[in-house]
Amino acid sequence: MEDNIEIEISETNRGNEQIIINKKHKFNFSFQRKDKSKIYRCTEYKTINKCKSLIILNDKKEVLKYESLHNHLEKEIDVSISVAKHKIKEEIKKNSIIKPIHIFNAVSQEMGLICPEYSTIRSQIIRNINKLISSKHKKF
Predict the structure, then answer these.
(1) Which residues belong to any copy of the FLYWCH-type domain (predicted)?
(2) Fewer CB within a 10 Å sphere, N or C end of the chain?
């Protein structure tokens, strides 16, 4: 098992929990055991690659087991897009700034060099802003 595992918690486009390991691989929630530990499988699990990698976390998000059996290349670009989308979603929830480019600039500065271009995630930002605005209108 790898000793220096960097874990980031994100979410899928559908709002499900996603784990990112070392900014290279994405793992989606698979199921929860009786002891409350959660199993996450590599996102390439259901593709032609049939990747067997998995990670098991306890309820405090501590790594119990990590099987790095990846049979595909690292996907740093896909991972950076997922991280950017998640951080932008969080910024939209906590800020009153609703200008997509301002939100993107704040997130991209925080992420550093591995940040996707604005045009790649612009539609996702606008979709999240529209969801937030419509949910606020429903409350009134």
Answers:
(1) 11-72
(2) C
